[in-house]
Write a structure and sequence with these properties.
Helices cover 37% and strands 7% of the residues. The longest helix has 12 residues. Strand 3 and strand 4 form a beta hairpin. A 4-stranded mixed sheet has the order 2-1-3-4, with helices on one face.
Length: 270
């Protein structure tokens, strides 16, 4: 069974899935949208942030909150591969095996990871740390072969780099991703951000002392920058200032010519 086929087999757990607190959070999420249905994806990520994946019971609860059928919710959940339909490890390693990446060694990287993590990794490793999956195009072909860890991209991941990456995660030192994306948190943390809650992770670099647990700190949203104030232009000394009832400065030639009185005078002179 391929990863894609397994994705469509939805597993279940006893309910309820959402805690009372997250029920209240869900109500707040729904209130952000003009129609409740628009909150469907954020609510599914909310379920994933609590359980670590999206069981059918979670879909039932989301359907109840926004007034849809479970079938309608499942149709969305089974379409998006970022929503996991079976128990997953804290770190989901997604290897793009589409042509650009495969031609540059993605298949070898995947097999190396499978060798290191074991066959069970295609679901979840026994220690609950990893899930390994093949992914369809990650839309970063110019950086191939590309690997995502909890949806954060790492560029040019050869088989040797894959081995190094797994070793760093195992050691609690999740490496900083390419292109300023920082360090991915675990799947629950990232799902919370995708639900519209929390903040993006901050990179944890070597030598950061106590920040060596591999869990990214939250980065508060930057405060909006104030626009620079410009001084209002002051009138020149001796300039005529419009008085109440005037629409502008002293009447110039063009205004005089266009005024009704001037027009009448022009007709009389003619």
């Amino acid at each position: 069974m391929t990863t894609l086929e397994a994705h469509h087999l939805v597993e279940d757990v006893p309910g309820p899935v959402l805690s009372e607190e997250n029920r209240r959070v869900a109500t707040g999420i729904v209130a952000r949208y003009p129609t409740a249905r628009s909150a469907l994806l954020p609510l599914l990520y909310l379920v994933q942030s609590e359980v670590g994946w999206v069981p059918r019971q979670g879909m039932r609860e989301v359907a109840e909150i926004i007034g849809l059928t479970t079938a309608e919710v499942e149709a969305v959940a089974t379409f998006y591969t970022m929503l996991k339909l079976h128990p997953c490890g804290k770190y989901v390693i997604s290897v793009c095996t589409n042509p650009s990446c495969s031609l540059l060694g993605a298949r070898e990287s995947y097999e190396r990871a499978k060798e290191l993590l074991g066959d069970a990794a295609e679901r979840m490793t026994p220690d609950g740390t990893f899930t390994l999956e093949e992914e369809e195009c990650l839309a970063a072909c110019d950086k191939a072969p590309v690997v995502a860890v909890n949806y954060v991209f790492y560029d040019g991941v050869t088989a040797d780099r894959m081995e190094e990456l797994i070793g760093q995660i195992r050691g609690g030192r999740v490496p900083e991703a390419a292109r300023g994306a920082g360090v991915p948190g675990d799947l629950k943390e990232v799902s919370k951000v995708l639900a519209g809650l929390g903040s993006a992770p901050v990179a944890v670099r070597e030598g950061d002392g106590d920040k060596g647990d591999g869990v990214a700190e939250e980065q508060p949203a930057p405060a909006p920058e104030e626009e620079p104030k410009t001084a209002e232009p002051q009138p020149e000394e001796g300039a005529h200032l419009p008085q109440e009832g005037e629409t502008g400065g002293p009447m110039g030639e063009s205004e005089a010519e266009s005024s009704p009185e001037a027009a009448e005078g022009g007709e009389t002179d003619g």
